[in-house]
Every structure is written in structure tokens, then in C-alpha cells.
Please model this.
Amino acid sequence: MDYERFVDLVRRQGPGTTDAAERAVRATLLTLGERISPTEARDLAAELPEEAAPWVFSDHAVESFDVDELVRRIAERAGTDLPTAERDARIVFGVLRRALSAQEVDDLRALLPADIRVLFDGIHVRSLDEILRTLTARTGLDRNAARRAIDAFLETLAERLPAGEVDDLSNRLPLELHPPLERGRAPVNGRAPHLPVEAFVARVAAREGVTANDAVAHARAALAALREAVGEELFDVAAELPPDYKRALLPVPR
Model:
């Protein structure tokens, strides 16, 4: 695939202009080059258009960073906000998969951590706006209040889940919802502490600034929004919750 074709395929799917598409391609490849080994970068560069090859190749030592840092660097380099950078990275990665040989795609995927691999594979992740619309429809809250509700719920939920479940949930949610999960993440041992459902609700209510009854209603709505966003993955989250949590917090069918 030649360079003009590569950039045009990116442009058509999101950035809108050739200049914006080129910035997205350059920012994404430069950042990807920092996350993979020099050997893999050379292999990748060999299959890229000549104009783009220098962006991915670097002789620096591989850096270890997560998808949040990857998108932050892309946004900084491209001069965009985080949601736009996340969208553009998915687009660039999608075109990249088309441009590379199957073997190179497999080699590259094997080097990427699970959270970046979700981005690279083009797995659909619902936007924050979509999740908040579900929450506002179920609660009548405005957008700002809905954001406070889901942040409070996710931070408290992360305190109650094993670290691996927090990772799995984070991988299927937009980047804007990663910070509350990280704030609530269990200590290094990854074991979730015992927390009675009454204490869980009290923490959600305190963080959100609402009554306990409102916190329960909002938590149910948040779980419904998460179920729509992550699908089957939510059942893994529900499996980690004891029966009293399920009785109090699982969404009531509409």
C-alpha cells in the first residue's frame, strides 16, 4: 500500500482532512515505535510506505506504558484531545492491519499488552457519550450528574473487584472512565477486600454526594449502562459480587 492510499484511508474514516490524517498517522506510528522493540520496529518499518517508515523505527530501548499513556502521547503529538486521539489511533491501526502481512500483524500483536491490543484490534468500545446517555435515560440526571454517578460507582466497584477483573473491565471502557477504576484499584496483592453492601453503597453515596437510596438507584443504572457497553464481560464482574450485592445492585429489568 502506498503512502497516499494509507493516508486517504485514514482520512475517510475520521480525521476529515489530509493534514489531520497525516498528523494522526505520524503521531500513532511514532508512539507505537516507542512501545515495541527496535527489532520489531525494523520489521514493521520494512512493510510500511517509505514516507512513514522513519516514524516507527527507533533505536531507543523499548518503553513500557499502557493504553492511557499511548493515547496521551498520540494526542499531544497530533494536537488533539484524548477522545479524538483514541478514535484516530483505532483508525490508523485498522489501516495498518490492512497494509501489513498476516505474519507481521501476528508478530506485532504478540508484543502488545492486552489493553493496547484492544485498540490495535479495533474492538468496539462505546464512547463516554453513549454510556452517559444510557445513564441519563434511566435516572433523569443531567450529563454532569451522570458522570459523577458513574465515576463514584466505578471507583467503589474497583475497590471490591480483583485486579484482573478491573483490568478486563478497563479494557472495554473508554479512556475517560479509566481514572476512577485506577483510583479504586486494590493494592498490589490484587485481592479484593471484604466490603458489606451497605458500606459499598455508603462509599458510592459519599463520593457522588447523594443519599444512599439515590446511590442504589444510580448504581443500578450504572450497571445497566456497563452491561450495554461491555456485554458478556459484565457477567464476569457480577460473578465476583456476593449475593447481597446482586440483590441490591443488579439492574431491575425495564
Notes: Residues 128-249 form a domain with the Globin-like fold (CATH 1.10.490.110). The chain has two domains: 3-120, 128-249. The chain has a mean pLDDT of 86. The longest helix spans residues 212-230.
